[in-house]
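At this stage, I needed to go through a protein sequence along with its fold in token form, as given directly below:
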Amino acid sequence: MSVRELVVLGTASQVPTRHRNHNGYLLRWDGEGILFDPGEGTQRQMLRAGVAAHDLNRICVTHFHGDHSLGLAGVIQRINLDRVPHEITAHYPRSGQRFFERLRYATAYRETVALTESPVGTDGVLAVTPAYTLDARKLSHPVESYGYRLTEPDGRRMLPERLAAHGIKGPDVGRIQRDGSLNGVPLEEVSEIRRGQRFAFVMDTRLCEGVHALAEGCDLLVVESTFLDEDEALATDHGHLTAGQAARAARDAGVRHLVLTHFSQRYPDPEEFERQARAAGYDGELTVAHDLLRVPVPKRR
């Protein structure tokens, strides 16, 4: 059975706390696993969440601040220690190539796995598979940062009442899906577009065009909300979002399920992030993330 869910491994910004690990997020998409921003301690959080190195197919790093990348060394060495049998691809800002190499070869170990480096240097498509297209968009942060967006290809949904009206049933349903028409009846007459699911991952950034482009029409949006709205000036100075800014971007983009994360340790009450997001007008499904949380991708409409 296919599984599409977000596994939250860590939710702290800048420094871990007693209750929040550094960043780390795994997206399970059918048979693939995409690991986003493995901060320090990610390998242990994977163990606690039941995520194995064999589950990983891609690693996507938004930028090379430590809370988003220091876990790379341990994760990469674990991939090799466990002799993952398939190729794993790593995406990260091209400008941080030297940091990636330092983390990849931080200590001595035996390389046993094909790890393909695929750095990001501009907006655009990074990968196309039968299950999804992976895109990147530049964000606004003191160091170069990219957000990621996964889009499932559109499919078609068969309409039983129209099939029945044309006397199409049994094996003929498969034939018209395969051939595009049957006895003069086009596929479009007995089906409709089934919009593919969309997921986006937006970390450290001010509001910018990249945020809006990544969020547009998402079923599940994971976005940083480091600060509360009363500290908006501080957020802008440091290249971050507030809960209200993140929520308004999600509202305007028509996001179905918003996941807020990457919280500053200065705030003792995580519920205030939800209150401010609701006050900003976001009325979709809303989750204030905590470590080891699992969030399913919303079912297709």
About this structure: The radius of gyration is 21 Å. The mean pLDDT is 96.
